Amino acid sequence: MRILSGRLKGKNFYMPFGIRPTSDVMRKSLFDFLDSYIQGCDFIDIFSGSGAVGLEAMSRGAKNVTFVEKDLKAASVIEENLMLLALPLAERKDRYFNVFKKDALSAIKELFSQKKAFDIVFIDPPYGKGLVKKALKTLEGYDILKPNSLLIFQHEKHEALPQTQGRFSVIRVKKFGSSLLTIYRRTSDV
Fold first, then answer.
1. Cα dihedral sign, 44-31-125-131
2. For residue 175, what are the β-bridge partners?
3. What is the pTM of this model?
4. Is 155 inside a domain boundary?
5. Three-class SS string for 94-163?
6. pLDDT per residue as tens digits for the range 126-185
7. In a domain, 166, yes or no
8. How far is CA 181 from CA 67, 75, 124, in A?
9. Is residue 78 part of a domain?
10. pLDDT higher than 80, residue 91
């Protein structure tokens, strides 16, 4: 796999065995949409796999990127990729890249208890396990999003998500073969 755009454009990175990566076409479309949101943001890639989406966010200017992956081998590959793609020292000032090696829903609860908040939350759970709706409900109860931030799900097209869920409202849905990207905006507190 390779980085599609940004400071690290064209650099290759490792892919763990046995995961379903986010396709280049889907990543390009997603980050074209996120272009005006990504610079300087706090980004979290949940169910990271190889970390491809978080690495792309890092390359395109996200200030801080957190990866959540419970599979220890995949998490180790993410750490290898971070070393392989290390930004120049001058660009690392006041930035961090963190790998959480734990279950996604537990990580959300822990980040909430630490009062962490993100501008963009990307969630790409394994297909066919009902984790998309569980993650959405968990985020409703343990909100780790800043006001007016984005919550993005990559999921199977037959897995329907609600138009609204608590403070989250769908602003865009895009189909890629048998997958969908559903993008929610978290509304401001009233």
1. positive
2. 180
3. 0.93
4. no
5. CCEEEEECCCHHHHHHHHHHCCCCEEEEEECCCCCCCHHHHHHHHHHHCCCEEEEEEEEEEEECCCCCCC
6. 888 889 999 999 999 999 999 999 999 999 999 989 999 989 999 999 999 999 999 999
7. no
8. 19, 23, 9
9. yes
10. no
